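Extended Data, panel c. Modelled sequence:
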Amino acid sequence: MYTQIELSRTGASGRVAVITLNRPDKLNALTKVMEAELRRAMEEVDGDDAVRVVVLTGAGRGFCAGMDIDELEILPPGDIRAAQWMRPFDMNRRPDYQTRYGYFPAVRKPVICAINGAAAGLGLVFALYSDIRFASDRAAFSTAFAKRGLIAEHGIAWMLPRVVGPGHAADLLYSARKVSAAEALQMGLVNRLFEADSLMAETLRYADDLAENVSPRSIRVIKDQLWEVPFQDLAQATRTANEAMYESIQSEDFTEGVAHFVERRAARFTGR
């Protein structure tokens, strides 16, 4: 089904989907085929109610070294919002997210990026659009663009300052320098750092905990909130949260959340 990525299910109940970029001999540099397969895999796991968490990683010693230099293309400005990139992730979401590489926020499950090696250019873009970033101590990061005569493309100038702050963002984008995993952790570019041999085990342990012990309905709504808040003022964000809380209290997952706590047993959330 897939030729340049791998898709598998894992976890105690098979609720964690792992998408692996699979061109290890090229440090998983992006091609048109891989790009299309990644979107298709995201669509597949988003539509699978059995999947509650998505992990994105790379095969071999790299995460994603950016676009394959042999497939670089000159895109007209309007291409980024062309119809083929707007679907299938409409889902009544904010249209700002319906762009060529900015579709991760429209996936209804948390996307955890397990960065096992070099993440440069579009590889860094994928990491930034993920909800959570774990990294190997052998990982390295670079925006790459300025050293190729390019600019901060695909929304990275919007994303990066919100993750690391404007000063770090300017540094990384202007210099396009290589950033070590330790420095990435210090500036908040990644959330946790693990030894290379334990990265996937630790990431999957975390992902499985989310899949088994947390309400998927709660995560779905909270993910919406986190991505919407940058477009809202405090009053609007509060009103939206109050409405969502009212709906949550009437949900099956709220009933189960109280019940499993009182009864001191494992949760059996349905996502409804």
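The chain has two domains: 5-211, 215-263. This feature is highlighted in the accompanying rendering.
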